[in-house]
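Possible regression after last week's pipeline update?

I re-ran a chain I had predicted before the update to compare outputs. Posting the input and the new output here so someone can diff against the archived version. Not blocking, just want to make sure nothing changed silently.
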Amino acid sequence: MVQGRGWEGAVLRLLRARDFEFTVTRAEDVTPHYRRLRLTDGGMLAATGVHPTMWVRLWFDNAGRPHQRAYTLVDPDPAAGTFGLEFALHEGCASDWARSAKPGDTIEATVQGTGFDRPDPDPSHLFVIGDPASLPAINSLLGALGSVGSQVPATIWFESGTEGLPFRTDPALHEVRHLSRGQLADRVRAQLPDLLKATPDPYVWITCDTTTTRALSSYVRRELGVRRERVHALGYWRAT
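New output (post-update):
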């Protein structure tokens, strides 16, 4: 159990965030660097409901200090009170916890700040920029925009190795452009402008590292002229 949550926990309490405890029921290594857990929700889904791309804040112990990271729910089941979480493994206390997690382990969590506004009108084409850390959110987004009457085509720029990762893409609708680390921003700047010219109602979803997300979000809005309400941008991790 994490002892105290510092100033972040205090701020979340003021914002009336809700706390829960999750229990691991299953663990699976999808690839050597990507791990999936199944957990019970401690009553969360019944209390909060569920929506596409929904995420929770998990609390980890970092050498005696609290550390929180946000993760997207995978296949939440409100009736059963269960969901999955997927971890792109690297260095750090969150990945360390995920590597060793086994059935019966518990973790504290907070729900605050999550939401999903379906684009209106639905996009004629979806442009997605991400990496393994945001893959669960990307999968959830593709499912949400393909679940009500029409199927939305998508172009996805995805940084880092993709072999074995659990993409939920339809080859007939979704083109994934695989990129090596460090290529993401340059490739998007080179390719996105021409694609936007042929798209009457685009929607741009940017969920990669914080620095790249900020740079591309500014570029898409200011230089390419995509309206703010047609751009979603959220940094999923910070490069060190």
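Follow-up from reviewer: compared with the archived run. The chain is about 25% helix and 35% strand. Marking as no regression found.
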